[in-house]
Amino acid sequence: MPVLYDKDKRIFTLNTKNSTYQMQADSFGYLLHLYYGRKTEGFIDWGYTLADRGFSGSPYDAGRDRTYSLDYLPQEFPAQGTGDFRSPLLVARDSSGTYGADLRYSGCEIQEGKYSLKGLPAVYANEGKEAETLIITLKNARLGLSVKLMYGVLPEKDIITRSVTVRNDGTGTITLEKLGSSCLDFTHGRFDLITFHGRHAMERQFDRQELHHGSHVIGSRRGMSSHQYNPFVILADHDATETSGRCWAMQFVYSGGFEAEAELAQYGQTRVNMGMSQEKFSFPLEPGEEITAPEVIMTFSSQGLERISHNLHACIRENICRGKFKNAPRPVVLNSWEAFMMDFDGKKILDTARLAKSLGVEMFVLDDGWFMNRNDDYRALGDWTADTSKLGCSLGGLVRDINAMGLKFGLWVEPEMISEDSNLYREHSDWAMMIPGEKPVLGRSQLVLDMSRREVIEYVYSSVSSILDSGNIEYLKWDYNRSISEVYSQGTYGGKVLYEYMLGLYEVLERLSTNYPDVLIEGCAGGGGRFDAGMLYYTPQIWCSDNTDAVDRLYIHYGTSFGYPASTIGAHVSICPNQQTGRITPLKTRYASAVSGAFGYELNPFLMSDEKIREISEQIAYYRRDRELISCGKYYRLNNPNDGNYCAWEYVSEDGANVLINAVVILNHGNMPPVYVTPRGLTPGTLYRDDETGKIYPADALMDSGLPLEAPKGDYESCIFRLRRL
Q1: For 660-679, how does the pLDDT look when each residue is reduced to its tens digit (9 = 90+)?
Q2: Is 376 a catalytic residue?
């Protein structure tokens, strides 16, 4: 059974196919974490020691037994004020300003299926017995505080989820100053922390550091999950590799500010916490009110980082992404942004779409600049009325003309933003998030709409639904191009604003996905500034980065691949020299780099030579053949590009019959030694044929000795191998 409860020992056991998670409500009522590791039988209530540790206080209930201290013991939901001086998940104060919440076990409930969260995205279970839920209730009598810890177990996917609801059942106001969602506590071990840092146009860069004493904290104070840090961390044995060693992953299903902290404490214990950002969070709960914290997805692997990624990829594809597009082949798009930015008219759009159709493109996406007064990025956000003089017709008419060519039509929007030079601002300046009496901070010359307010939520929904009602628009690129710096609302208490903002955004996206199920929404926040599992619940793909440089994308895709499947990654072949870097790369390499997800082009085909036009047509034909393998196959990182002069990765179908290997040699050097890539995931004891050369390879030899790449003739050259099992 996925969830087991021993009433005598008060031990809870969560079992997945390859892992066991165990905790115990001890004799004092504290919920201790016992174990999370390889699947096992029995009880692991012997995994911690008791000793008199100086200056580590004991609960009053322990009497003269100084060996019992929460300052050392591993816990499930550590709260401030219990004598544990490590980082807590909960900080609460009462109306008198007194801090502290001593939480004790009150009861439990086991349910069939996976819990859901009101107003928040969360892993869902398919019909049948795919999941079970455990709910453990902790209470503090003085405050009247009730805490429900929710655990969802998806055994076949090796996934355990965690969330928490805090309710005020008392008579006075309780203010939460911190509310985390998940904690992993280890009594010993030598660990590395893997995080994914970055910046705009260089997101999710792989970083691995050995934990030393103290706290390693990452997070976002920007009101979004951010370009700077992704809400996803891996704790790994110091010697863990792609294919060996223990690893634990925590992935936040939330798109707002977050905090993840790994702390190596005084006696060698390691604690990893994940939850909402504590900064600018101060949440008063009146009697009878409650708040639910966003969910954390957890998975364990005893076989290295590769298995962690496979577990998360399957969970994201099957249990986070929803609707008709979660496993559907993504259309090949041509996006207008790098083709002509805002400098276009109706004729240019139609001519470009017509040529794109002849190449095999399946959808034309019109990016920024299509609505009234929007010829630069200084004005008009919030006024979503099509510029008929610029388009040469109504938006609906343009869509019909594009559809008549046999192309689908997509459109860029940025509904959460407002320009000062807009009719909306002139009518409702109070809808913008600004501090009264102070000049606002501008980001990309725009302000943020206060999505915590009901009237703003309704305006955004009605604006977007009116756009979708105007024609057969089958794709929305939902952009978000600045961070939230001023946290002020005329309708919401300041410490609640950022949380309520996310609930407002999620409500709009939920209503749109429900009422327009045939529209594919691609998330975007200046590229990858909101690339997280929370957004993927509503938008099954996200524009990976505004940086379309083929070489930089190797590193961006490498980091992204640890937590997110290829089907969620928007990736395009762009103009050359590249708009962001000025780098010149072969068209084949731009394809090899971009064919790592939801594929398309970001260029003006009229500026391409006849030879390049033919090559693009061939690329699209190849992608159409390979896209199911790319979207749904198992993904293998064949090397770390930070450690060498090449980057190689592989897709293998679930049955092992089809294989796609991409490799890019980054820099060419004189008299270079050969580069070998070693595939994984092939079927042992079988043979594979190369589609292009017809050469036959024994699977075992390939996985042992590797495949030599062609000697490069210049920088940034690529090789693509398509292998089929005989």
Answers
A1: 999 999 999 999 999 999 99
A2: no
